[in-house]
Amino acid sequence: MQQKVEFEQRVHKALSDSQLRQNFRSTMDGLMAKRSQAFPDKERLEKLRLQGAQIRANALLKLPELLEQLEERCTANGIRVHWAETVEQANQAVLKIMQDHNATNLIKGKSMVSEEMELNHFLEQHGIEVLESDLGEFIVQLAGEPPSHIVAPAIHKSRQDIARLFQEKFPDIPYSEDVETLTRSARDILRRKFYEASIGLSGVNFAVAETGTICLVENEGNGRMCTTIPDVHIAVTGIEKVVEKLSDIPPLMELLPRSATGQHITTYFNMITSPRKEGEKDGPREVHLVLLDNGRSSIYEDPELMESLRCIRCGACMNHCPVYARIGGHAYGTTIPGPIGSVIEPQKLGLDRFGVLPTASTLCGACGEACPVRIPLPKLLNRLRFEQVRDDPPDNTMGKGSQRSIRESLVWNLWSWANTHPALYRLGCLFLTRLRGLVPKQLGVWTRVRKAPAIAPKTLHELAREMGIEDE
User: Which pLDDT tens digits describe the chain residue by residue (472 residues)?
Assistant: First the structure.
């Protein structure tokens, strides 16, 4: 209940912020338009979506063996693989690598899994300075905020917000609201840090089991700097990011950037298969891959809900979601917001804690239609709504049945019983029409933004008889 109250408070705060709503509305409209332009041939798009869905579904069906193959190939290539069942284990794995190299600062590329781990906070507690090098992540780090979008972390901020933030944090830099000037200022600050850090960390877009290759997609070049300049590179990823073959990557790369930002291809596409070899002029001398579970195995056990693990983190579902576009990412209170976050996060963190998120949807279907790998998001949202109120949960994982109300269950059982007894149903309808004036004008949360439903003065059977239509 507390989580629901806090969610409603965050939603009302977002809805009352006109600047925030304007920022999101204009940006979402732009991203949707760019995606549409990037896929002019709708038939070709559907074929690509089907191919992408098949690639991801195939990888999930073979996930246990592909993860073993990935570890084997990575190890043979010289990449050290670390398994982490929990966030705590993943954080400890990163910390140990830092301590083994006596490193006191870490330069980071964009990584949603590190946000899931709350890695920055963890390392700072152990005296390690962490700096985000992705511009959007850098901005929200300066502001002390989590990302509000998985692709564009600072999407909720206007250039005026960023200009004021830079002036506050870097008073020596002249105030400017010009986007290029702000970007150049951030780049000058970050470039010095790349050369000071001995360890860099990145996320992973895809991990290829066949070759032991880590694939990293980016636009700014900071990911490549994080993975080549420091002597040690740490990549952190969820176990679901594995794909079977290198040939699976091109179709996914056709879908990912176009779905995310409307680009045909990102500025940089990095493929990391080993540490620096003898005779090579750049690259890390050590590469570590941290594979995080954190509830993904539990999701994997359900044949239907496991479809949510197909996600390639493009953010298209958020861009097209009418709810997300109005309340933004912070209102959800989770690492991943929007439709996909409302499916994944309650499964990982429990429906008893985040069961309100699946209800933050109109079930309009826009997210499912936009998903490049055809995750049936509306169906999964509906499934989770059912899971939290069902009366026969098979176990207590995910907080199943946590929102079940005995009173509500009794009402529905009575409704079901009445509708299976025709005589009782007709008598009930007759009483409702005659006593319609006693129906209250306020019906809980339903009538906060709606009028109470008006009951007709006559039943359907009465109207039919007046028209000369007799009951059979």
Answer: 566 788 999 999 999 999 899 989 989 999 999 999 999 999 999 999 999 999 999 999 999 999 999 999 999 999 999 999 999 999 999 999 999 999 999 999 999 999 999 999 999 999 999 999 999 999 999 999 999 999 999 999 988 999 999 989 988 888 888 888 888 888 888 877 777 888 999 999 999 999 999 999 998 888 888 999 899 999 999 999 999 999 999 999 999 999 999 999 989 999 999 999 988 888 999 999 999 999 999 999 999 999 999 999 999 999 999 999 999 999 999 999 999 999 999 999 998 889 999 999 999 999 999 999 999 999 999 999 998 888 776 555 567 777 777 887 888 888 899 889 988 888 888 888 888 888 788 877 778 888 888 888 888 888 888 888 876 6
CATH 3.40.50.10420 segments of the chain? 58-294
Q: In sequence order, what are the residues at sequence separation of 6 or more whose Cβ sits closer than 8 angstroms to the Cβ of residue 135?
A: 154, 183, 186, 220, 222
pTM for the full model?
0.88
Q: Which residues contact 120 (CB under 8 A, 6 or more apart)?
A: 108, 114, 130, 132, 141
Give me the CATH code for the 58-294 domain, please.
3.40.50.10420
Question: Is residue 110 within 8 Å of residue 100, measured between CB atoms?
Answer: no
Q: Are 15 and 338 in contact (CB under 8 A)?
A: no
